[in-house]
Design a protein that fits this description.
nine-stranded antiparallel sheet; 492 residues; 15 helices; alpha+beta
């Protein structure tokens, strides 16, 4: 274990990240629960096994497990259409509306791409998120393609609320957190902020720079906003905050097939439903490598093989935090990695090194492999944005005076884009993020803000037959599988 800890401390510096909290469960016992580095750099506050981190999409396993409990209680069937329970849940395709089941939503096979931009800092409630499924363009036919989809998990959260008569948070707390003794786990940013032992979120200073650290805000989801119905609407997809000590209890519970002590909290049958491959994936989630094969998704968990051993895992990324929870059932091994850094893949490298340790395998070099992969992926993403924008045509002018482009443009799925005229030209505002929008060519402009979600992306104004500016065409879905979204100008 000392070698593992020394490796974590060394690689934390190599990855240039503030801290990692690490938990290892082997044969039913916690063999490592510790923190490394600083949970807060300014205060030089050390991380430990009780430090609170946001776990992002690792929350999905809690939602799927909560659904399994309702199946055990006879209130829910995995393969019965969700529309039977919540008639207001609809998709753009009536066939999908009539046939999409809880299993479909939990294993990401509805045919919908992510469509995330509308809810990040967006003024939507949980119900409005679930209702928005009807406005989303599909990317593929129903049940033919795996694609990660957060809003479908929110819909399952609404289903849990409907069938239990509780909020998703209260149902998870009473039926999972309390029985497992996860007493430091919470759902609210005000709770983590008020706790003296919490990690703060960090990111890179600039997307174009792979070195350096800057503090960033939490993705807001406090109790006051929840009471107003506008707090963590994404909760069932990613709002949980926890510690390594608590998450080790979560791993023990899953490795023990739903048993807590002598109590079978979730039936073994339904725990297996969560952990088995429910939908094959076209490609691995991360890099293709011979050690990892047969990528699939269960319900709330990725399922694949690692050096021939079944591996059940799920990562999480949310403003300034990354997490990874992994189990190798035939080794009776579980690993938890929590990091207070945006889009960290140190979690995967550390986990794979730990699994190799227990397999007696050397030379995986996972840290170097993943750093190289991330650098290549980042460059490919930048090249992809440039390719999507197309080559710039020099010497062109907008067809209208800049003032004519100002106004509010609306889309049923994504809400409003606001274009305003400033001394330095047009500005693009979407969900609280304002960016300068310099002219690119013709009626196409560029979003220019290194800290904005759409930095470097071009958007195009369209005109009516009368010549008046009437719409914006924009690839806001960030997915080549769907057409650009059209935002229509609304009257002031």
């Amino acid at each position: 274990m000392e070698n593992i800890k020394a490796c974590i401390e060394k690689e934390l510096k190599a990855w240039d990240q503030p801290s990692m909290a690490l938990g290892i469960v082997k044969d039913g016992k916690v063999v490592v629960a510790d923190g490394f580095g600083c949970a807060n750099l300014e205060k030089e506050q050390a991380s430990n096994a009780d430090t609170l981190y946001q776990i992002g999409s690792c929350s999905k396993a809690f939602t799927a497990t909560a659904a399994a409990l309702l199946v055990d209680q006879g209130k829910l069937e995995w393969d019965r259409p969700v529309h039977d329970y919540l008639p207001w849940i609809k998709f753009s395709d009536p066939y999908v509306t009539a046939h999409a089941t809880t299993r479909d939503l939990l294993c990401h096979r509805t045919g919908l791409p992510r469509h995330d931009a509308y809810w990040i800092d967006g003024p939507v409630t949980r119900r409005e998120m679930a209702e928005n499924l009807r406005n989303m363009q599909p990317g593929w036919p129903f049940r033919t393609h795996w694609c990660y989809q957060n809003t479908c998990y929110v819909a399952v959260g609404m289903l849990i609320e409907e069938l239990s008569g509780m909020t998703w948070e209260e149902f998870v707390r009473q039926n999972l957190l309390i029985p497992l003794g996860m007493d430091r786990t919470t759902f609210y940013v005000d709770a983590i902020s008020a706790d003296p032992n919490h990690a703060d979120p960090y990111d890179r200073p600039l997307p174009a720079d792979l070195q350096g650290i800057r503090p960033i805000p939490f993705l807001k989801s406090d109790r006051e906003d929840m009471a107003k119905g506008i707090g963590a609407p994404y909760g069932p997809a990613g709002s949980i905050m926890s510690t390594v000590n608590d998450m080790c209890r979560w791993v023990q519970f899953h490795l023990n097939n739903g048993k807590v002590g002598d109590r079978q909290l979730i039936s073994e049958e339904n725990m297996k439903e969560l952990h088995k491959p429910n939908m094959l994936m076209d490609a691995p989630l991360l890099m293709a490598c011979p050690e990892i094969d047969f990528p699939a998704y269960g319900m709330g968990w990725f399922v694949e093989t690692f050096r021939g051993h079944v591996m059940v895992e799920h990562g999480g990324n949310i403003n300034g935090f990354s997490a990874l929870v992994t189990m190798v059932p035939d080794l009776n091994l579980g690993v938890v990695c929590l990091v207070n850094f945006n889009d960290s893949f140190h979690t995967y490298a550390a986990t794979y090194e730990i699994i190799d340790h227990y397999l007696g395998v050397q030379g995986g070099d996972w840290n170097e492999k993943l750093r190289k992969f991330i650098a290549e992926t980042f460059r490919a993403q930048l090249d992809g944005i440039k390719a999507m924008n197309g080559p710039q045509v020099e010497g062109t002018q907008p067809s209208h005076a800049l003032a004519d482009y100002a106004g509010t443009y609306r889309n049923a799925c994504y809400g409003d884009i606001v274009i305003s005229l400033h001394d330095d030209g047009l500005h693009f505002l979407y969900n609280k993020q304002e960016s300068p929008a310099p002219h690119y060519h013709y009626d196409t402009f560029l979003i220019q803000n290194p800290h904005a979600l759409f930095n470097g992306m071009a958007f195009q104004f369209e005109t009516a037959r009368s010549g008046a500016v009437e719409a914006i065409r924009f690839g806001i879905a960030l997915d080549p599988a769907v057409k650009d979204e059209v935002f229509r100008k609304v009257e002031a």
